[in-house]
Amino acid sequence: MSNQNNYDYGQELAYKLAREQLAGTGDIETQCRKSSARYLEIDSRKVIVIEYLNQSYLISLPDIEVSLMNSQAPVPIEDKILMLHYLISAKGTLLSNKMITYKELPEGANYFPNFTQRAIKPLIDHFGKEPHRLIDVAGKLGGSSADYGDVAVTINVFSQVPITFVLWRGDEEFAPRGSIMFDSTIPDYLSTEDLNVLCSSIAWRLVKLLGGDSPGGRH
Question: Which fold has domain 99-210?
Answer without folding.
Answer: TATA-Binding Protein (3.30.310)
